[in-house]
Amino acid sequence: xxxxxxxxxxxxxxxxxxxxxxxxxxxxxxxxxxxxxxxxxxxxxxxxxxxxxxxxxxxxxxxxxxxxxxxxxxxxxxxxxxxxxxxxxxxxxxxxxxxxxxxxxxxxxxxxxxxxxxxxxxxxxxxxxxxxxxxxxxxxxxxxxxxxxxxxxxxxxxxxxxxxxxxxxxxxxxxxxxxxxxxxxxxxxxxxxxxxxxxxxxxxxxxxxxxxxxxxxxxxxxxxxxxxxxxxxxxxxxxxxxxxxxxxxxxxxxxxxxxxxxxxxxxxxxxxxxxxxxxxxxxxxxxxxxxxxxxxxxxxxxxxxxxxxxxxxxxxxxxxxxxxxxxxxxxxxxxxxxxxxxxxxxxxxxxxxxxxxxxxxxxxxxxxxxxxxxxxxxxxxxxxxxxxxxxxxxxxxxxxxxxxxxxxxxxxxxxxxxxxxxxxxxxxxxxx
Length: 432
Known about the structure:
Rossmann fold, four-stranded antiparallel sheet, 17 helices
């Protein structure tokens, strides 16, 4: 990767600084950084890959750096630390030629305010070129790259073997999953994709997604295989009134509309709803779009079905968003769990008698999943759990909990590339 221009590595360093020192989401930092847009497509992809891989392996990288320097770099040397981290990532995790990984990292610093650290960065990287691969082989990668609070949460919820499998799955880049509006088998062939048991398509090949057959015509859209499951839990929806609360960016609303439902897509973010509207237009689908707060919105009529994909800590999507490893905290889980409770109460109030509510979150944390459903069912609302069946999710019985809820994990379908972590439960409103 020595032919990658210095600008791409400088952009990666800037993105890393935005995430770790300014606590910005990687996607937001990428969208807001003009230098990202100025890069050629291949260089932009490399900058993103370098920043994301560094975040994915940050625990290992920092442990290696700590072995090579006597004390931590001062706060004022943040730029030098990012250059060093990127150098270690290229050297040991991206198979960059050693001379390129070392020289380009030093060049990032040489002519700027961090120039005084260029010698240190050079010395550390040269040592790790000699010793680093053996050191990496002896590291506990799953544990080092998982913050303590997440590890303890998963250990308590799933046991050590599964917690380790979850953390190990996060070390891999997620493949590209696709949901089709038409025949999945036909599009699997056209897109050189694998047809998963759940009906999603999976592509392992890199490349520009928008250039693939069927994209411009709206025949399919990008959606993780796990994220596509909750919309299947309503059964046939043609002609039924369905509201998708917290709908944007809209993958599940698209599924429901493509299946013939009369969809109301609600979200409090006008910007995100515009993106949903653009996706509906590209696919030739229609839905009523409502910008409102789902906790207070009250329509004139109740609905046959309500989908609540609630805002959550998103710890289930760390394969795709490794910045979440270092940006999320237990306080986020507590705050979001309170919001989820309010949203669930509001969602239940929108159901007609006999109607179905599906609640889901892309979180691994029990406080955001099973605890929310238990609290809802314990409340003074005429609701009952409707257990999910294996035949509704491609026969994958291992994804169903003893209570009849859906619980996917990043280590499920590991041999095929894994999937996001989702919790979903289905309840029906009983006659008053």
